[in-house]
Amino acid sequence: MIRLIKADNGMNIVGQGGKIILFTLPAAAMALWLTAKFPAIAALPKALAFVRPAGFVLLALGAALWTGGIVQLFLAFPKGKLATTGAYGVCRNPIYASFIVFVLPAISILALTWVWLAVALALYAGVRIFIGPEEKKLLGVFGDEYARYLKRVSRILPFARPAR
Q1: Domain 51-157 listed as CATH 1.20.120.1630
Q2: What three-state secondary structure class fits 11?
Q3: What is the pLDDT of residues 102-121, one digit of tens each?
């Protein structure tokens, strides 16, 4: 069980996740509060209801990316291996990306509210702010393999080339 949490190479499976989630939590709480107390302010125009089918597509894509990322992480991490294919070949942080790009926008579309888009932006900001130390640790542990991976795969945007 301990190998699932902390690998022999010194890596922790949670990485910077705790900080990122704590950073995002106030935005999620605000979204819930605003939706409950001021639904008219949180609502998107009902005329946009025709886009709801796109919400289901985004939700399915997000669930697939998240599931792939979780499964690969739990398979590679205890072995001290770097996952670079599958969900991790699409983007370097598929678990976060699934929520930023797919799940939270899907919830906004399906609920016809903009507040979950704001939470997605907060989550994106949290990743941008806190992911640096994790990437430095990965570079230290995996060296050239991770350096090549950084050049090939975007941090968040699926299938995008990383910025130079």
Answers
A1: yes
A2: coil
A3: 999 999 999 999 999 999 99
